[in-house]
Amino acid sequence: MQRNHSIDTIRGALLLIMTINHFIWITVGWAGIQLITLQPFGQVGAAEGFILVSGLMVGLIYTGADAASNKKKLLTRAKQLYIYHLIAILAVLTIAYCFISFSQPANTFYSELFPGLIGNTVPTLVASFTLLHKPPYFDILPMYVAFLLISPFVISQLKKKRIALVITTSVLLWLGSRYFDLSTLLTLYFAEGAINTGYFSWLAWQLIFVVGICLGYYSRHQPINWFKHPAITFLVSIIALVLFVFQRNIFAQYGIHQGTLYELADKPLLGWLRIFNLFLLVYLFGYIIHRWSQALTFKPLALLGRHSLYVFSWHYVVIFSVAPIALGFFDFQPNITVCLVIVSLLIFVPALIRERNKSPKLVVEKESN
Question: Where are the transmembrane segments (predicted)?
């Protein structure tokens, strides 16, 4: 099926935003640019959008007639991402030890970030290989691997016209996430700092991935005209605008501000307001793409989006390599803005390499035709 470059652009933008935010959080904690990159439209961040769009792409791409082939591709993809995740951990660990050998502040920095990996390396690595332990900021790929593994089952149920069962089960798991804490159970069996089950609850976050699969599946097989009634689009726009205004703390004197909104939009457990806000934005961006299919296309970001999972794996290596330099653990300390530019440019490396390796094949195919 024909690739939509606007969706690739959105995915690329989400990748860039996550990279910027992660780099800032591990270095200076907060920077002015996060007025734009950190939940700019309401109680929704880049991670939620990335997971939903990833589910959407699964529903669009892997729901063809050949179920066996699609299942094999999904499982192969999950295995590939699992390997990338482990390589990223090993690469960051290697980088950390290199910096530590030259700088005592770097030792403190990495030990505080990765107490298990630095202080108790072998058991923590073993736990990482089983995906029980996820170092800080390494949450999304393991979660995505798990979601890819359940995708063939979800797709099979959609093909049997059991969408009500799929959504009901997913919602019940989301509700159940409030009562099941894997971290509390596992910490009894591991040394302090050796286990970190991650920031996100998989039971909660599967909801937006599953909804993404459903949206992608029906977009491909039974398209629904979501934008048939202008009044609905207008209402969604108004509600999204209200949440945007509330997010700006304009009504803080009345007790409506980011803090009170977050109580309803808890991120690790996906509060109902976060999900509601996310779907409002998905609807509005979908409307823009529906009306003007390439309106959101921006080639550099679309490039990132086309190779999103390679870029996401690589971004760990970039941010944890540049962070000690940005923090001045050596004889020089570039301005944080300079470091942000460097980090933002470096995440394009795997996308550019893959495009370059792909180009000769395309040329051969064109010449043979």
Answer: 12-37, 49-69, 81-102, 137-156, 163-180, 200-219, 231-251, 271-289, 309-329, 335-353
